[in-house]
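Tutorial sheet, problem 5. The three components below are modelled jointly, 942 residues in total.
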Amino acid sequence: MSPDLTVAIRGVSVQFHGVERHYRDSTALAGLDLAIEPGEFVALLGPSGCGKTTALRLLGGFDRPDAGTISVDGADVTTVPAHRRDMGMVFQAYSLFPNLTVADNVTFGLRIRRLAKAERVRRAQELLALVGLEGHGGRYPFELSGGQQQRVAIARALAIEPKVLLLDEPLSALDARVRTQLRGEIRSLQQRLGITTLFVTHDQSEALSMADRIGVLNAGRIEQFDTPENVYRHPATPFVAEFVGAMNRIRGRVGDRGEVLLLGQRVPYQAATGQHPAPGTLVDAMLRPEALEAVLDVAGPGEIVERTFLGSALRLRVALEPDTAVIVETSSSSDRLGVGARVGLRVLADRVTVTAPSAPSADSVASVAIPSAA
Amino acid sequence: MSAVEGIEAQVAEVTAQLPRSRGPFRPRRRPALWRVSIMVIVAGLYLIILLSSIKFSLISASGKYDLSNYSAIFNSADVRASALLSLEIAGIVAAASVLLMLPTVVLVRLKLPRLTIWMEALTILPIVVPPIVIVAGLDQMRETAPLWLVTLLFNHTITALAPFYLIFSLPLMYRSIDTGVRAIDLHTLVDASRNLGAGWWTTIYRVILPNVQTAVLGGMFLTIALCLGEVVLADLLNLPTNTFPVEMIQFANQDNAPGVSVAMTLLSFLFTFLLLFVLTFLARRRGHRTSGVIS
Amino acid sequence: MLPFAVIVVAFLGVPLYYVIHGAFSTNTGGFTLANFSAVFSHAQYLRALRNDAVLALWTSIGPAILGLWFAAAIVAGNPDGLLRRIVASASGVLAYFAGAPLAFAVIASYGTLGTVTVLINSLFHVNLTNTFSTASILGVGLTYFYFQIPLMVIFVTPALEGLRPEWEEAARNLGATRAQYLRRVAAPVLAPSVIAATLLLFGSAFSAYATALALDGGTIDIVPTQINLALSNNVIVGQTNVGEALGAEMILIVAVVMVLYWFVQRRAGRWLR
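Model answer (structure tokens):
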């Protein structure tokens, strides 16, 4: 931490208790429970309309819950209006005041708090340096690029030494290169300041790469709240499995010693939340493409039907039976794994999540969900 | 049908998720005093003259309540002729205005964006240039210009008024079309159309026009409104025939028939208002903001 | 582009040229400045100019305030609501069509036999016509309100819609009350658009003649009336050229207003795009 940094922030805890928010003809939050530790970076991940933005806005004080409470640092803030909450919010885009210079934008909150001018100037310089925009204080927002504008928005949110930093898809309006760069910067800034941060996104790779813990939301409820690794490797529900990353569903049979019989192998399993498959029943095992390995085997059950070179990896589409296929991703780039080659499949995961089998339609034995590339 | 409902439901859901749509944070919305008060003031201002005019128009010259003022309008050959004349001028001007402005706006947006600010400046002028000054200029012209030009222009009411009404329509037409064109991806549409072998003419009137239809109609209806209300040129140029609003003024100056001019006012107002009001529904179906269409 | 330029030059440029040319000409066509010296020395012309400017001033600032307030109230409501449609359509009609027809509506309400006048007379035994006449400058000015307010609504609605909800939320989030947001963000952002629109209203009111023509046959003492009188005066030789000089004077004033408008508008464009 740089010695002259005077932005004094203390990480605080945040709790949502049974928070509900209903609109005229839809429900945004159906009883949200979430406990964020002091200094933690939590991402709320989910498809549009899952209630994640509502949760953020409720914490920011822009909206009030119909039921439940929200507390910050142990104090109930449910009815505190937005301008007294001390939350630093960064919006999707276009939130800078167009009539103010960058420096005046950054110190807007300090001006409201009647800080002396000399002190404001000093703080503006310090914060702009923090986000890598030294010397841009005199410009106007319309003279900045989208990425620069979001940096200013972050500096502005931090200027008031907020209790919690709220990020509402701050990267979604930026182009891919800037987005990746800012991702890393936001994360390191957050760690440096130790500020509790709630980040809302629909982009799984952002959530996975930035957060300490991810809350996956679906239809107004938390499906899983866990570390990125666990959310990715051990999804608690089929929804999480298929929303976060590509996922194969492969039919298997539960054994009687906590393992599942799958592709001729015995693999330890965990059942999806709320499910208790009895030994001997059929289940779907959920396996990431990289948790499978394709091995050349002339007598193997699969045939490579499609081969896509991804740069860092090779993606294979392997047909198991006439109507079913799985996706395998491997870092090997062997030319011999070509279309038409016969392969066997090996499970690399040390544990798989299993769920009740999906309806037996033609392609259900090993269906594949691949979200659009991040 | 069900697909449309599905989309609407989705849209409703998304908008419900983002209650930021407009302004206030007050989660339970109560009608704000600042909004209600001005609405009452403005509604009062206009309702007074609307209701007064309706009542006034129903009083006949002899002081009884009847529809004689309205029947006088429909029975008068002069009024019918003037109404037809005004509608004729309005139609010509509205069509000419679109023919002129649509290609111009498209060209400026596409090829000459640097001219945009000049277009905006030029097309705002007719709002502030005094019509009486145009009259003065034309008066001078009548005295000094070649005779053939004077007879060509001023021997018929349509030729005398339409060119200048076209100028007056530029602000409305420019703003309407510009708003419409801004809302569509002009570059892609034009490239696609040209790529498929369409010429400029076809591109503008077969591809772009249908996409900015409501905006163009908005501009046309406002132009019609303008032509049905303009009196300075129509009255002071000493033209051979009276337009509808000039006829209105003449009725107003007849002692026994002030109610007729008020009835004419109401009818023409109703006509133009309905044109635009119906358009706002069309505009919504096509997903434009109503305020953008009429501006 | 070319047809547009040709038409603007032919039907706007040419009449303006004739006005300016006539303003510098004697009745036989020679060059003179006498017309302008008449315009700037005769008390009747100076009085008309002052009347016109004062009229334009209060009939632009008043409607600007009411129109801005009203437009803000409408924009804060449902963008697809019935109210929004009615306002959008009615303001279009009233702003562009209304000069003369509105005059008749005003006569029907506040004129000697107007409904409001008659009603007040029978209720309170007060005769409005003793203190107020629709054929006075006051009456003409009040009629202007009826088309200037909608004109303001049309001009400022895009700027009001350009105010992003994020700005208000960001300001609240940083600790600002609603009043502080309005003062420090909304007002400065809107100011150029509002000033520009007010300048246009001034130009529109200063130039208007239709209302006066319809209300009282065009006799109230403003510059367009003087132009009309000068043009139709066949008795005094050279009087039409004085009319042209008065026209040139109006062009000059409108040009100054438009230059101001131009500068302010460019500033507005920088922020709200």
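Marking note: The mean pLDDT of chain C is 87. Full credit if you identified this.
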